[in-house]
Amino acid sequence: MSDHAERGSYKQFCPVAMAAEIVCSRWTPLILREMLCGSVRFNDIRRGVPRMSPTLLSRRLKELAGAGIIAIRPARHAGAVEYRLTRAGEELRDTIMSLGAWGQRWVESSLSLKNLDPALLMWDMRRNLAPSALPDRKRCTIKFDYPEMSAGRRFWWLVVERGAVDLCAIDPGYDVDLYVTSKLRSMTAVWMGHSTLKAEIEAGHIELAGDRAIARSMHHWLGLSVFAKERPRIAS
Predict the structure, then answer these.
(1) What's the CATH code of the domain at 138?
(2) Residue 85's domain spans which residues?
(3) Would residue 236 count as lying in a domain?
(4) Does residue 234 sit within a domain?
(5) Whole-angstrom Cα distance, residue 64 to residue 85?
(6) Among residues 6, 40, 142, 145, which one has the fewest Cβ atoms lying within 10 Å of its Cβ?
(7) Whether residues 16 and 101 fall in one domain
């Protein structure tokens, strides 16, 4: 066990306490969420936790490897590595996903919508986008504009090419098929399932311009949170 984990030890033999020492340290559940959703490279995992420092992420990954939850393996490219969940890590899937489902049901949406982050939103949208719902063409480019955001965080491009989806924070130079202008809160609410694309468009919070077929099918290809189908409940 690392020095950091030892300092945070509950010093109890209870399995809940021992598991919490490993899984419940700050950022660890989010790292596991990213890996359970398919991220295996350091930079991809980091894009899912954009507010986490690279140094701390590296340390957490080493701690998880030391605990037997992930394995660090050589990648195809020389000198690169991949982070893969072990059997122990895969067994955390239901735990992490149940935690997210609980949060969707019981945490007030107004609280979650205070923590807006276009980088995280677009990364998750990229991961869940359905290329099969887009026109069958060599390349499809969709540009998102969040006018209230500062330079460097305002514009995002989703590029779909041969079934693969890429996210760009810098103009890739391709012709844009659809322009999406939205308040960040509105697009986040749609992604989380707190609102609908139709409702936000009708309210004037989201505007679409460009290819009409892509615009009409947006509710099919737009990637929503895996928890979007969970309905909020009221605690009694």
Answers:
(1) 3.30.1050.10
(2) 3-106
(3) no
(4) no
(5) 9
(6) 6
(7) yes
- Tell me the whole-structure pTM to 2 decimals: 0.83
**Residue 112 corresponds to which amino acid?**
S
Q: Distance (Å, rounded) from C-alpha 20 to C-alpha 15? A: 8
Distance CA 76, CA 65 (A): 20
Question: Do residues 85 and 13 touch, judged by C-beta distance below 8 A?
Answer: no
* 89 shares its domain with 122: no
In whole angstroms, give the CA distance from residue 52 to residue 27. Answer: 8
Compute mean pLDDT per 10 residues along the chain, 236 residues long, and list them: 52 88 93 95 94 95 96 89 97 96 84 82 94 92 97 96 94 97 95 94 97 96 89 68
Rounded to whole angstroms, the Cα distance separating 26 from 183 reads: 30
Q: One-letter amino acid identity for 15?
A: P
At 221 the pLDDT is 96
Lookup: tokens for 218:
């947006």
What value does the CA radius of gyration of the chain take, rounded to a whole number of Å?
A: 20
Instruction: Identify the domain boundary among 84, 106, 128.
Output: 106
Q: Of 210, 198, 212, which Cα lies nearest the Cα of 145? A: 210
Which pLDDT value is given to residue 155? 98
Task: With respect to residue 15, please indicate whether it lies within any of the assigned structural domains.
Answer: yes
